[in-house]
Design a protein that fits this description.
Largest sheet: 5 strands, antiparallel
CATH superfamily of the largest domain: Aminoglycoside phosphotransferase (APH), C-terminal lobe
Shape: globular
CATH topology of the largest domain: Aminoglycoside 3'-phosphotransferase, Chain: A, domain 2
Structural class: alpha+beta
Distance between the termini: 55 Å
Strand content: 5-15%
Number of domains: 2
Length: 423
Amino acid sequence: MSNSVYEALTPQTLGERLGKLDVLTEYLGTDISTWSVKEVGDGNLNLVFIVESASGSVIVKQALPYVRLVGDSWPLPLSRAFFEYHALKRQALRDPGSVPEIYHFDEEQALIIMEFLTPHIILRHDLMSATRHEILAEVLGNFVARTLFRGSDLSMNAAERKQDVALFAGNDKLCDITENLIFNDPYFDAEMNRHTTPHLDGVVSELRADMDLKVEVQHLKSIFCANAETMLHGDLHTGSVMVTPSDVKVIDPEFALYGPMGFDVGMLLANFYMAYFAQPGHIADAEGCTDYQAWILQVCEDIWQHFVSEFSHLWRTERTGILYPASLYEDQGHHLASEQALTQMLSKIWQDMLGFCGVEMHRRILGLAHTAELDTIEDEALRARCETKALLFGRHLIKNRHALGAPADLSRLALVMEKETRA
């Protein structure tokens, strides 16, 4: 299919343009007239097609040369498909079975053909319908532990690591989006910001006038920019997770870059906490709402505990990279020193995670890209009450990240915030 001229696919042209690809005919058959093509992309950036026939089904994902949410006034490089492809390949090796299988990549046309996850649905939708998944915390906690550990200097040799850092440094345009939309825009009247007005105007003004908060956010931005600790998913939220009762898959790592370990964990937990605060807008029954909120808080605690457990296991069994070599610790019988180093590293990740969690909550309520859990609450006054609680919770995490010591502290804080009647 590749040629020198990029052209965006449509449901009408996809069969003709891709119909000779062996990988597609293997799954769908050679008669393109029997193919059903449906464009289902509901994200901010890309085209996503479900292609089906009596023989099988695939997903075709193609980058657009602009931000889909905004339009062609905001150009974006097609190379993000290249980075998504390479991130998925690495994630598949570092945590087998956690991401969809890749069938084909076309760099010139910026498209990836991959496994169609069915009957999976986006986790965000399940959180709005009060659906529970018993394996969720374990799978997600293990995913972040394995991908973050195995993509770092704790696991990789020097040459492999430095080549990988150089490769993903090319994803600078999407990194620039992260640096501005997450760490800058929510804290001033940026052009593309939006919030529930006028109900949130007071708390928004308060946050933007909070000098200590803005200083702390820029400290967090400095950590994000200066610490290439591991390959990150870069946009890990509940819209990037697909689930069934017995399976969990992580998708869409096109924002992949090298950054601090706490970032992915913080982004993920932030979206669970926003879902927690949004529940009164989706569950009318007070007792049922409280019960489901308690389940969400337990998932947050369990994700962190599974992360710590798996990360610690990998530290003790797979620490073969260029940092903290066993030759300085275990090989000399200094096991306690190794455990001390592990404890200190986990403490740093925890504190960074808290800050990134708070910043993500702010940008999802005040910035360009919001969450469906909050945005779909039709009663604007109720939505603003939910959003205010999340904003204040996020501010507390950012400003007090050095004082909060355990996941249960966050659950207690969330319960206190939930009782707020402000806004």
